[in-house]
Amino acid sequence: MKADPFNRNCGSRQVIDRIGDRWSVLIVLALAHGEQRYGELAQRIDGVSQKMLTQTLRGLERDGIVTRTVHASVPPRVDYALTDLGRSLLDLVAGMEAWATTHLGEVEAARARYDAR
């Protein structure tokens, strides 16, 4: 069967759901410059709950986008990093970030016009 993200039963839709999720995008961007600890990610990504960060990291790890490395230390240290597959997403998510920051003013103006109707 050919991949068809418009088909709700196709695995490609699940992939799009994963990589298009706001927390996934922000995690990939946060890991763009190297591995980080859980606490560093939680601090960097304003507004993410512990539950959502954990859940998203597990999903990204399951999909092969992020690796989780546990270091034998006290207290235990856990680092997250992008895999090669995860790094292949960087152009896409960096493009989304660039578009959002470049066009923020236009989007805010459009929202204001819409809300004023």
Automatic annotation (TrEMBL):
Transcription regulation as UniProt keyword: yes
GO terms for MF: DNA binding
Annotated InterPro entries: ArsR-like_HTH, HTH_HxlR, WH-like_DNA-bd_sf, WH_DNA-bd_sf
Alphabetical UniProt keywords: DNA-binding, Transcription, Transcription regulation
Superkingdom of origin: Bacteria
Segments forming domain HTH hxlR-type: 10-108
UniProt cross-references to PANTHER family, sorted A to Z: TRANSCRIPTIONAL REGULATOR, MARR FAMILY (PTHR33204), TRANSCRIPTIONAL REGULATORY PROTEIN (PTHR33204:SF39)
Annotated protein name in UniProt: Transcriptional regulator, HxlR family
Organism: Micromonospora rhizosphaerae
